[in-house]
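Known limitations

Files may contain more than one protein. Parsers should not assume a single record per file. Below, a two-record file is shown to illustrate correct handling: read the sequence, read the token line, then continue until end of file.
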Amino acid sequence: MQYTTPLFPGFHLSSLRRKPRSAAEVLAAERQRARKKSISQLDECFGRFIPREVLQPEDSGQFSRRRLFDKANTFWGFFTQVLDADGGCQEVVRKFQAFAAAKAMPAPSSSTAAYCKARQRLPTKTLQHILAHTTEQLQQRHGLPSLEGRRVVVVDGTGLSMPDTSANQARWPQQAQQKLGCGFPQARLSACFSLYSGALLSYRLGHRKQQELPLLRDQWETFERGDIFLGDKAYCSYYDIAQFQARGVDTVCTLGIRKPVPRSQAVAVLGKEDWLVRWPRPKMARQLSYSEAERTALPEYLLVRQIKVGVNNPGFRAKEFYLITTLIDADRFPAETLADLYLQRWDVELFLRDLKTTMGMDILRCKTPAMVEKEILMHLIVYNCIRLLINEAAQRIKASPGQISFKATQQALRQWQPMLDDARRSRAQRRQLMVLLIEAIASKSLCHRPGRREPRAVKRRPKPFALLTAPRHQMKDIPHRGRYRAESA
């Protein structure tokens, strides 16, 4: 039995020491100490989307010690680097210096070497696990629109460029027509998005010469039974449609190489310019991307639905196109519904624009293939996290996530981040700031502009600089075309 003094109830008479803290008090104190050493309070925004256990210090080896560039600080520094408008490593180092000055800690060096080495130590598997976790969080959101209760997965590919280093050139070579030293390594990214939530579900990275179909086949595990695959004519392949159908996934795409089947050869007429057709299995050819054994295993015929869609909107390049789909129930999926669904396929171009233009993933900065892959992963993590905030804002105003501006959300995050980083604010004040942030995001909705004409053309002309036709150290200055030199006497 323990006895305490009447004036100092917290001390033991036997040892005159303070009562030992409980395990919960020790854990709370450790969390508070770790929070004071955290470079960023962005976990107030995204902490519930990021699994905290993967950012904890390791038991041994790399990131095992509590230091300024530990795993959590390096991750959030990398996160803010993608989120910021500048996007440079020096920007993150300056942020670390300001943090150290606010905490009366020794200021780190202005060199970016320590931070860059810490980024290199970040395990790729950790970033992949975080990306998969954010994707799962997006898929668990309720109230998202769907097509007859089915998820629509839209797929498209795009190109990326990166610094011209020998390591990047070996992994992602430049165009063969360009001279060495005059071009940049080019990679091809194939990504699967959820059409209605905008979530990035999966991606594959290849070089410029790789086609999009082989990259899509590496992502078949992304699709679940009952999904609807939505793509353009590049994905209109007998092999892929048959493989998706075997997995319980229906396809909606535009007609590619095959010619439209006339009405006289239709199996059944479902409506005006809408009928069922039977596709024969393709013959073996050299340009096919699968083997003879895989071709033989395909069904001899595919029963698909062919819909002719007319385009009356001015400014559209195509005046008509053919839809090919395995959704053959015309009562459940009318032709007008499928035509409207394919019109929404343009959203994937906007998703890629958000990644490449708004977030700056078009031109990457890292100089090694390993760091390029980490840079892409971090861009995708930040993209999914912003999409999670957009979905929360859309639920608040009972609107579609597509009505919330992605760029305005990113701008709001940049302005709210310094206030969340203020260590003097209490947890309750940060929660109130998060409520105001969601309200600010929800207040910026996009205008509905049906049939808007957006030609792919630029008005502002570039500077009249000469093109680099030789390596920079061999390039000679070319006299300006507006200057004239007097002939020598």
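...continuing to the second record:
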Amino acid sequence: MTEIAFQAITKQFGKAAKPAVDAVTFTVPADHTCMLVGKSGAGKTTLLRMVNRMIEPTSGKIVIAGKNVLEENPIELRRHIGYVIQQVGLFPHMNVAENIRVTAEVTGGWTKPRLARRVDELLDLVGLPPVEYRDRFPRELSGGQQQRVGLARALTTDPMILLMDEPFGALDAITRSQMQDELLRIQRNVRKTILFVTHDMEEALKLGDLIAVMHQGRLMQLGAPVDLLTHPVDDMVAQLVGSDNMLRELRYLTASTAADAGYPGPFPEAKPCPTCPPGSSLLDAMLKLFETRAPALALESVDSLPARYITLASIISTLTKGRRREGELESATATGRASGSP
């Protein structure tokens, strides 16, 4: 298990007025997927590429498994970090199997039988049957299939970390969604620490355990998707994550955020209360309320905590309380300005 710790990491290109990355400090816990989001020029890709020293930092530290990567041999470092980019970068003169095993061949220490097994293992993992795909060439693959091969290649040597720079950005919407689902499935199986750059907020909310919002080289906010949707630190973050988008909140806020311990219940024995997993979305909970026509759903629990329920009223309250806080803040600010208060 490997975490990535950025410690006041800075990158200044030449004599530019502002650093591309400016004293960024945060930690990506082991086995988590951290999405780097922000407008173009925010410093996302620069930060990502400093992890494997494709770009050298100006100052600060990046600590992986307790070691400062700036003190490591960059070639050796890259052998233990998977790297997936939008352009994939498959070698056109090599077939799929050769493209996947090239990283391990460069690293060394792999026997041919072991490497052949690893190629088939990875093709199965990314959803490409080995018998059908191992001998094909990149020109014989679709964009989505090429991206799967690129992901398999990044996993060949079982790296501790995956760096992904807009890997699905060039794919059509349907294929992109399929690749996102595939990455979620693979991550459940292999559990890597992933740093993922994207411009797509829906992608960030769907894939990320954490989201790091960058702006003009600085880290503006770091948190779980639910934290950014419900408690953005400022208007820029709120606009970026769409915290005023009710449909987005319904899709990405979990049912547990709307649980109400004060619901009167319980239900008559003849009509037991339907249940809802705590990780379900508010949208799923709302649809189940409509489908069952029940006044409430009981939030499933594995411990002895008091029963908590989800109702349409608690969902509406969850969606609106953030807006009430924003409205109160705006009102207080306007009142202060009118009275001359700071």
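Parsers that stop after the first record will miss the second one. For reference, the second record is described as follows. Residues 244-342 form one domain.
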